[in-house]
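Example record used in the benchmark description.
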Amino acid sequence: MLARDTPLPPLPVEGTVTKPQRGNERYIALVWRRLKRSWTGMAGLCLVVLLLVMTVFAEFLAPMDPKATDVGFAPPQMPSFHDRDGNFVARPRVYALADSADLDPVTFQPIVGADYDHPRLLGFFVEGAPYKLLGLIPANRHLFGSLDGEPVHFLGTDKFGRDVLSRAIQGSRVSLMIALTVVFIITVIGTTVGMVSGYFGGRFDVWMQRFVELVLAFPQLPLYLALTTLIPVTAPTNVFLAFVIIVMSALGWAQMSREVRGKTLALAQIEYVRAAMAVGATDRRIIMQHIFPNVMSHVIVAVTLAIPTVVLLESFLGFLGFAVKPPLISWGLMLQDTATYSVIGTYPWILSPVGFVLVTVFAFNALGDGLRDAVDPY
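Model output (structure tokens):
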């Protein structure tokens, strides 16, 4: 009961309508609040954002032209804050490699050492190899590199003298593009087939699930290798890339559809869905308005967990030579240089693309685990 002096709440003005707050906005805010409590989920989100930025601005972030050649295998050049006498200097620098007059007593090759007489100063936003930013804007500025424009290899070079760091940054564009495209196609096909099959049920569901089981029963790795060999070597790179995406998508949608079908079978028995059926709502409206929003949380988590799987698959197929072909650059294609143990033992820095793959897998897996706990706290 209100006190005598307590003012009454104002009555709504006639003719005005108060807009209700949308439920999905409250749900998104709740998911974000739960995600912020997971440090692994937030770490994965930050890494995913950095990977996407690296993919979009690969030419700007790469210190050198990824196709430019130098002197063959060369070890990484680590930045130093000391001069040749060991004194501290404020501006970082690297020292180029130079052949000395001494010979190795075993191989009789000149001993390679640092050239302390000609340091290469480092800086940010330096001039370098020309490129087109976003494929449209001509530019020649790079985020970091040498001030004099001389080549600097922070992760060394491969057997053709190409900068490993620049190729790894540029290769992220192809590897992540393949992964995102394949997962998008898998999600669209798998979600559609799963919802339709689980909602209608009956004989249609039985025959559809037999087809899904047939796709799941195929041994995927031999089938990948067999299908990718159908493209001739002389085919254009875009055709080969499109065929690889189609093959991965055709064999990957079945598992997604099986998961979505299970969620749909459970949702179809909920009271509000059965009430919508009773009042005569169309099947399309029930699927899009009642079932689809409720399976989206599971689909989002499944997408974040499927991307690292595709990245690992592309890297493995690229290592075997069944993914992209030169002149395209991908992490798997770069790992072909590590096919022999002797090369790895002599030039271990060519394993650097493995670090990019591991960071990508960790980022999306951590984000997927955080989202899974946020969208379904039970």
